[in-house]
């Protein structure tokens, strides 16, 4: 298990290094030694982000007739955050180690401890499965005394964690001490008391600081949807159920701002709020859980890398909540949340604004505040999941090695690289002719520098799914060779069939079709 964790830790370092070397992601303000937990997306990273956004937006807005999109402002009236509960309740439990001076989220320390116990269970299951040909995992889990003891430990820890997160910070510290949790850096168990830490950034608005009003950088994009609920519903003449989607920046003063782009202080969210009739929320909650998992699996990054995780502690606005977790280099962590937010947000904004935020149902001839199902995915975490899964070191049949980014083709920054065999004799001109056929539909790169083998390796390293090689025969028979990144398979086709061939393989529509 320790060796596996070391390998995963190494993978995260390799992904971060590769992302910088090839222009995916840079440390923000690097020439000034950087800014902690803030990153810039380079020329390839911004393309990857835009492709993920496009896939999400089209799957939500374009495929659903009853979902529309908006773009609300980052700055909002400060009462918004009082109504939403963020001013009073948007806190994380903070704890410091006195010896290392490192700061941690207390709940994350406990959850990491639980993950270690789960690792022991998996070890027992793996050992037992090797002894029996017809191994029954479920029966083994239910009957093995050691596994049952581990499961009992987990349930006890979860119950105490839930109590601590609901306000008993003293017992949360005692739980950390009882579990003998040590600081990952110093190995010390010398902890401070647990205290609450509000995650919102605040600033001032106004021409003079003396007369300025305190406002906040939004910690989520959802409230911009809620305060515009009636504007969108009335102008769009929308009937329940309907959804409002949004992609935008959010800001959180995270306690633990580590693990590359997994947890950042400035990040981007893709959120959709689905408004439903009260009493029908659990039906739609189940439907959206299923659709969102289907969206992820359509990318082909392995069903085994995803799982649902139900929340131990529900947020103040929810009556049901589940995360879609991905197997990151740090283990299974939250990638997307699906929440049943009840009518908390709209009712709170009604109370604080004095305005009615209700839907008139002509069928039942009554007005009511709708319930809401939320799907919320971190775009930066989505980028990390793609990069981490894509990063592959391979030894080829001829003994040579390559580092290849096996990014799903519809998300790849460049869909095609056109490579003239040599940079002379009319081959570059023929390459540009082919590039011009494709560039209206796809992001294309024409690469002429270095030997053809080096150019293949360069395109592998940035995740280009297809390379088109133009050789001397191409000038005579009007045919080219297409090389596929992952399989290294090569086929020769006429130039006039390239568009159809490439479109079928790399278009986002190939993903959307799986969702219909």
Automatic annotation (TrEMBL):
It is an enzyme of class 6 (ligase). GO terms for cellular component: cytoplasm; extracellular exosome; microvesicle. It holds the Pfam family HGTP_anticodon. Substrate binds at residues 105, 220, 267-271, 374-378. InterPro entries: aa-tRNA-synt_IIb, aa-tRNA-synth_II, aa-tRNA-synth_II/BPL/LPL, Anticodon-bd, Anticodon-bd_dom_sf, Gly-tRNA_synthase/POLG2, Gly_tRNA_ligase_bac, GlyRS-like_core. GO terms for molecular function: ATP binding; bis(5'-nucleosyl)-tetraphosphatase (asymmetrical) activity; glycine-tRNA ligase activity. It catalyses: tRNA(Gly) + glycine + ATP = glycyl-tRNA(Gly) + AMP + diphosphate. GO terms for biological process: diadenosine tetraphosphate biosynthetic process; glycyl-tRNA aminoacylation. ATP binds at residues 252-254, 262-267, 334-335, 378-381. Keywords: Aminoacyl-tRNA synthetase, ATP-binding, Cytoplasm, Ligase, Nucleotide-binding, Protein biosynthesis. Its EC number is 6.1.1.14. It is found in: Cytoplasm. Residues 200-420 form the Aminoacyl-transfer RNA synthetases class-II family profile domain. Catalyzes the attachment of glycine to tRNA(Gly). Homodimer. Belongs to the class-II aminoacyl-tRNA synthetase family. PANTHER family: DNA POLYMERASE SUBUNIT GAMMA-2, MITOCHONDRIAL, GLYCYL-TRNA SYNTHETASE/DNA POLYMERASE SUBUNIT GAMMA-2. This is Glycine--tRNA ligase. It comes from Mangrovivirga cuniculi. The gene is glyQS.
């Amino acid at each position: 298990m320790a060796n596996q964790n070391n390998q995963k830790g190494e993978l995260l370092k390799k992904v971060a290094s590769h992302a910088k070397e090839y222009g995916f992601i840079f440390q923000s303000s690097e020439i000034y030694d950087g800014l902690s937990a803030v990153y810039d997306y380079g020329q390839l990273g911004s393309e990857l982000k835009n492709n993920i956004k496009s896939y999400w937006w089209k799957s939500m807005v374009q495929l659903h007739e009853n979902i529309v999109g908006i773009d609300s402002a980052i700055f909002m009236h400060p009462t918004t955050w009082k109504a939403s509960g963020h001013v009073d309740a948007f806190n994380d439990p903070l704890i410091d180690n006195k010896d290392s001076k490192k700061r941690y989220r207390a709940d994350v320390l406990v959850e990491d401890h639980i993950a270690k116990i789960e690792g022991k269970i998996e070890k027992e299951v793996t050992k037992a499965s090797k002894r029996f040909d017809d191994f029954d995992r479920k029966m083994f889990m239910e009957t093995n005394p050691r596994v049952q003891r581990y499961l009992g430990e987990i349930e006890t820890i979860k119950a105490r964690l839930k109590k601590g997160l609901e306000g008993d910070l003293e017992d949360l510290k005692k739980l950390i001490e009882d579990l003998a949790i040590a600081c990952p850096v110093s190995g010390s168990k010398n902890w401070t008391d647990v205290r609450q830490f509000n995650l919102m950034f605040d600033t001032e608005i106004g021409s003079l600081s003396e007369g300025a009003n305190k406002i906040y950088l939004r910690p989520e994009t959802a409230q911009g949807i809620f305060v515009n609920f009636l504007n969108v519903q009335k102008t769009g003449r929308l009937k329940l159920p309907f959804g409002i989607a949004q992609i935008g920046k959010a800001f959180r003063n995270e306690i633990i701002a580590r693990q590359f782009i997994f947890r950042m202080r400035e990040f981007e969210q893709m959120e959709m709020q689905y408004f439903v009739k009260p009493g029908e929320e659990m039906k739609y909650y189940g439907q959206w859980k299923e659709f969102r998992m289907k969206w992820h699996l359509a990318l082909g990054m392995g069903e085994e890398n995803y799982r649902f995780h139900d929340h131990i502690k529900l947020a103040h606005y929810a009556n049901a909540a589940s995360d879609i977790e991905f197997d990151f280099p740090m283990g299974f962590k939250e990638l997307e949340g699906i929440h049943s937010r009840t009518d908390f947000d709209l009712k709170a904004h009604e109370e604080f604004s004095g305005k009615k935020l209700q839907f008139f149902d002509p069928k039942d001839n009554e007005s009511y505040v709708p319930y809401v199902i939320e799907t919320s995915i971190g775009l930066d975490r989505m980028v990390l999941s793609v990069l981490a899964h894509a990063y592959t070191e391979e030894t080829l049949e001829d003994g040579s090695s390559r580092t290849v980014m096996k990014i799903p083709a519809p998300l790849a920054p460049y869909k095609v690289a056109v490579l003239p065999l040599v940079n002379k004799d009319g081959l570059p001109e023929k390459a540009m002719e082919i590039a011009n056929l494709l560039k209206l539909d796809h992001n294309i790169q024409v690469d002429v520098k270095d030997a053809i083998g080096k150019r293949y390796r360069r395109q592998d390293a940035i995740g280009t799914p297809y390379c088109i090689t133009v050789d001397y025969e191409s000038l005579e028979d009007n045919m080219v060779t297409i090389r596929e990144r992952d399989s290294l398979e090569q086929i020769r086709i006429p130039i006039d069939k390239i568009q159809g061939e490439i479109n079928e393989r790399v278009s986002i529509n190939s993903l959307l079709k799986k969702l219909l």
